[in-house]
Amino acid sequence: TICASEGADVAVIARTSADVEGLAGEIRDQYGTKAVALACDVTSEEQVRAAVSKAAEELGSIDILINNAGKGCPKLDFQDQNIADFRSLLDLNVVSVLLVTSTVLKAGGMLEATDRRRNIINISSKAGKQGFTKILPYSASKFALEGMTASMAAELKESGIRVNSISPGMVDTPGFPKAPGRAGVRTPESIRDSLLLLALGDMSGTYIHADELDAAAADGGDAMRCVKRIDEADFKV
């Protein structure tokens, strides 16, 4: 809804269209923009190709791509993590980003739309910058996503396509439910400023942590101080 609130036509994607048909209807009613609900398993090459083709057919070239699909893992010592589950997590959190982004570039019209502002935004995590315990599969996937974001930004620089990532913090969603009233928990809508800063800005190969942007806003600081290069040393244990 954040992009639609700024006047963008949007394609909303989930594994089943029933999950997003209601949201697409709300977007059309509230913002008056086009909103297409599409069913797609983003780990399936065939389904991704079909969804991207349909989105481009309905809306025209895709100018902003937000890679938001992902899942977590059980909190276990790494030696007790299930290997099959680890592979499944990597397929969704990492491989699907490459699949969807590549398809949007080639079949979604993004490469050809040189007269338009084009952005790819990957939803990452602080776990991609810090070695947390008990969640090695998830953390590994987000470290991989940060590297992927930096590589994409470098490769697409000459094409004028910007690639950045957002670490939204603890967001209460159906896939990642958080305890009510827990300190630091935010709503999906609360990352609006981070998303728009990247979508409307000229930076590429950077990341933002939404909590840092909130802190800057609270003390009247410059939001740009929160934008950091992905390749800056920031690994913590």
UniProtKB/TrEMBL annotation:
- UniProt keyword Oxidoreductase, yes or no: yes
One function term, GO molecular function aspect: oxidoreductase activity
- Pfam families the record matches: adh_short
Q: Which SUPFAM superfamilies match?
A: NAD(P)-binding Rossmann-fold domains
Q: Does the keyword Transferase apply?
A: no
Entry-linked CDD domains: SDR_c
Q: Which UniProt keywords apply?
A: Oxidoreductase
Q: Which family does it belong to?
A: Belongs to the short-chain dehydrogenases/reductases (SDR) family.
Protein name, per record: Uncharacterized protein
